[in-house]
Structures are given as C-alpha cells and as structure tokens.
Design a protein that fits this description.
The chain is an alpha+beta fold. It is built from 2 helices and 5 strands; from the N terminus they run βααββββ.
Length: 104
C-alpha cells in the first residue's frame, strides 16, 4: 500500500526559502546546480519515503500522528515534519535545515 503525499503551503514556502538561501550562497554555476539538486532530492526523498513507509520514522512532539523524516545532506541535513492524516494520506507540514534556530 502506498500513501498519497501532499505538501502544505507552509512546506512549499519552506522549500522556496531553503532554495533562496542556497542561491544566495552560490558562488559558481555548479553551486546553482547543486541548489536545485538539493531541493529536487528533498522532494524526491519525501515522496518516495513517505509514500512507502511513513510509520517508520521518529515520532515528533506530543501528537503521535506527527513524525519527522530526517534527510542527511552533506555534513548536516534537512528535517520534514509530517502528519499521517489517514490510512492513505500523509501531509508534510514543514521542512527545515537541521541548523536552523527554530529546529527542534
């Protein structure tokens, strides 16, 4: 069984913010390509992992339906907060870099 994976407007905005951050730090054409590759990889991992095994990732906060997908990337990584809303649907609520101040 596979789950439908949807991103909230907040999660989409998070991806845009992360992309803009990577673009601002880019110094070469290769850096620009890596910025796009990073966002593409995050999207692909969320779709692939959450569609198949959303229950296998760590629980987040007090709500047992909310979990976090950790996505290693280089020396750090990204975290997607998501909620399993039904037996066939997962909703990504937010995406953060692990070094962001509001990461918990």
């Amino acid at each position: 069984m596979t789950f439908e994976v949807q991103l909230t407007p907040t999660a989409e905005s998070d991806l845009e913010r992360l992309f803009d951050y990577l673009l601002d730090r880019a110094e070469t054409t290769e850096d620009l390509d890596r910025a796009q590759a990073a966002i593409d990889t995050i999207r692909e991992l969320m779709q692939r992992q959450l569609a198949l095994t959303p229950y296998s990732f760590r629980k987040a906060a007090q709500n047992p339906a909310q979990r976090e997908l950790i996505m290693p990337f280089g020396g750090t990584g990204y975290v997607a907060l998501y909620e399993i809303v039904s037996t066939s649907k997962v909703v990504v609520l937010a995406v953060r870099h692990q070094r962001e101040e509001d990461y918990h």
